[in-house]
């Protein structure tokens, strides 16, 4: 099957080296006028003047992208998309002055989602997540990471990861599964210090071996934060996960600076995520490492916090910065990745080119996929999204709107084209 995407007002290629882009490299999103994109089977084969591609690719199906900007499909490298009921009651509790950690301490927050997920069967969770993932796709996301982390027993974590595997079979999206058994210390293990240690023993001695044997996760993640998992506990869990064949990620320095970013660099984690409270040392550690700094501005926006992650300091010091939604029922219930690009510009001080790179190539790097997706260049997976716009700067501009008019993953339609 040959496809030729023609007549686009602009093509955002993000073309360049197949790795995360750092510092000044993020300033160039490779935006071209008057070019077409040629796809053969699952791969992009050329980007260039339409007449040349027409000659080189006779018999291609033409997709008329008039009035649209074509971009690499968005890569959302941090989501908690499989959950049961939404937690809308907590939004008002926070507005009335209760903190995220206070709500958790009273058995709400992650604990509330854990109680709910444990009571649901696989079928139910599959149906709920299926509908949400279609909404995510309708905003131009073509690849997304999905974490477990609302089960917190071996059986319930396996249940969530099986749901993610089934969603991956059922939908055209590319899904990357992450085991987040260390999302919280579950309440039944919080009664004493020995209970806490017994949960870590369970993670290492039972849950990790079961998840690794079932081959249901590509990454392991830990919520490294005072009151949840300490830096030492996170090191122990992630080193064990690496030993079991999983790559690593951390929720790091989200609310307080505790050395999470430094740990991510030390252990060679693929990404360190959140980072609103990262220290100067943490920034230097990430800059000197291959770890992607993944920023989640939707979370802080929704929690009503004034402080965002220091995106400018990270980029200007030379870090690889990605943006992601953190889609989850507590702190970021948005399916709209372009809205996160808006926050990247207006809250984090990033340029349009920087947010485009951060949500494509660098999102792919945060999933160790930068050699495969995230750019429109020969050899890359044919993952594309069309947005109704004359200029790429309109993507973060029309905030909250749904301008995606179609998407393709591996050359196959993902979100139906409604041009
Ligand atoms: O990334 N910080 C920890 N985990 C999620 C929140 C999960 C929840 O509140 O359900 C996050 O923000
Ligand atoms: Fe998260």
Q: Approximately how much beta-strand content do the residues carry?
A: 15-25%
Tell me what the CATH architecture of the largest domain is: Alpha-Beta Barrel
- By CATH reckoning, the class of the largest domain would read Alpha Beta
Radius of gyration: 21 Å
Q: Name the bound molecules.
A: N-(iminomethyl)-L-glutamic acid, fe (iii) ion
Global geometry: globular
Q: CA-to-CA gap between the ends?
A: 21 Å
Please give the oligomerization state of what you see.
single chain
Q: What's the total number of strands?
A: 18
Instruction: Label the structural class.
Output: alpha/beta
What is the number of independent domains?
A: 2
Low-confidence runs: none
Lateral strand order in the biggest sheet: 8-9-10-11-12-13-14-15
Features:
419 residues, alpha/beta, Urease, subunit C, domain 1, TIM Barrel, 2 domains, eight-stranded parallel sheet, six-stranded mixed sheet, 16 helices, 18 strands, 37% helix, globular, binds N-(iminomethyl)-L-glutamic acid, binds fe (iii) ion
Architecture overview:
The protein is an alpha/beta fold. It has two domains: about 1-70 and about 375-415, Roll (Urease, subunit C, domain 1); about 75-365, TIM Barrel. Helices cover about 35% and strands about 20% of the residues. The protein has 16 helices and 18 strands. An eight-stranded parallel beta sheet has the order 8-9-10-11-12-13-14-15. Strands 3-2-7-16-17-18 form a six-stranded mixed beta sheet, with no helix packed on it. Strand 9 (about 140-145), helix 6 (about 155-170) and strand 10 form a beta-alpha-beta unit. Helix 6 (about 155-170) packs parallel to helix 7 and helix 9 (about 260-265) packs parallel to helix 10. It is globular, with a radius of gyration of 21 Å. About 55% of the residues are buried. The mean pLDDT is about 95. N-(iminomethyl)-L-glutamic acid binds near residues 254, 328 and 331.
